[in-house]
Q: What sequence folds into this?
């Protein structure tokens, strides 16, 4: 049976239909209706109908990747940067609108599942997918299935405080979550740019900072190596708790190729015992991983 996955983002909603072997049968994107909860549901219903047309027969269950998470206590969406979803029984409302079951996970969980199934983490038992982009998030896959806990916050490494804090890290920037010094404020793309601006007085994009570092600019080189050390500390704390076989990076900062060589050189300084066999690797499926992972969710029902 073919699978349907939906990836709900802040600016676009994407549908993919996958064959049983993971081959892509069809894909479509539509803009996300701004601030309109009912219109978001209607847009997803339309995309699922399109998937049924192009890839029949499709599985009755639909996999959905969404920002935020379903509260195990109340059943409503929480922690979503698409704020129109927060406090809404999105899972229930969407299932009713589609007239079929829905399995829903955080978009970072879907990224991790995609890369664990047939991406950079294929064949590994424990895969941690880390998103380092505009924000910082994560998902965990064990034995081919997403790991979920009783609080709906599995994999949220970005909202712990940056470990082994040093003078340049303190007191830490305020985070949108209401706390200060979260990992997200340091290793996200905006965090990297803010730190460079505050240190040098120059406002440059992440890409430009990295380009200048590659060209030998001293300020940019110092900024990049400070970023690498912070990322190494943050990921070392993940390794100390989870001990994954592989960490797969996604998001805009995952395109900074230097991190795959430099972070493993640094994180052994912070991992307990100093021995690290965990691999840090770039993703395979790029921005398609979220929607592909949503389609693979169907097997978790």
A:
């Amino acid at each position: 049976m073919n699978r349907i996955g939906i990836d709900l983002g802040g600016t676009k909603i994407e549908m993919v239909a996958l064959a049983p072997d993971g081959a892509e049968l069809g894909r479509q994107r539509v803009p996300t209706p701004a601030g309109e909860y009912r219109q978001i549901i209607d847009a997803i219903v339309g995309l699922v109908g399109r998937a049924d047309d192009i890839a029949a027969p499709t599985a009755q269950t639909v996999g959905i990747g969404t920002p935020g998470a379903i509260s195990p206590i109340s059943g409503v969406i929480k922690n979503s940067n698409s704020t129109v979803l927060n406090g809404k029984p999105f899972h229930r409302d969407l299932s009713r609108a589609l007239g079929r079951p829905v399995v829903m996970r955080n978009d970072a969980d879907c990224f991790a599942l995609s890369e664990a199934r047939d991406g950079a983490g294929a064949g590994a038992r424990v895969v941690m997918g880390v998103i380092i982009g505009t924000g910082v998030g994560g998902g965990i896959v064990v034995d081919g299935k997403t790991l979920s806990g009783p609080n709906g916050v599995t994999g949220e490494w970005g909202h712990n405080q940056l470990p082994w804090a040093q003078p340049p890290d303190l007191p830490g920037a305020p985070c949108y979550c209401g706390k200060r010094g979260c990992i997200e404020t340091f290793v996200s793309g905006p965090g990297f740019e803010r730190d460079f601006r505050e240190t040098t007085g120059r406002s440059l994009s992440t890409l430009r900072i990295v380009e200048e570092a590659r060209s030998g600019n001293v300020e940019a080189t110092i900024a990049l190596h400070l970023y690498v050390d912070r990322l190494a500390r943050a990921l070392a704390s993940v390794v100390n708790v989870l001990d994954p076989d592989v960490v797969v990076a996604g998001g805009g900062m995952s395109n900074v190729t230097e991190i795959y060589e430099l972070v493993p050189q640094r994180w052994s300084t912070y991992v307990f015992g100093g021995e690290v066999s965990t691999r840090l690797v770039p993703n395979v499926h790029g921005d398609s991983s979220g929607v592909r992972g949503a389609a693979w969710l169907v097997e978790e029902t």
About this structure: The first helix runs from residue 37 to 54. The two ends are 14 Å apart (CA to CA). The first strand starts at residue 3 and ends at 8. The chain has a mean pLDDT of 95.
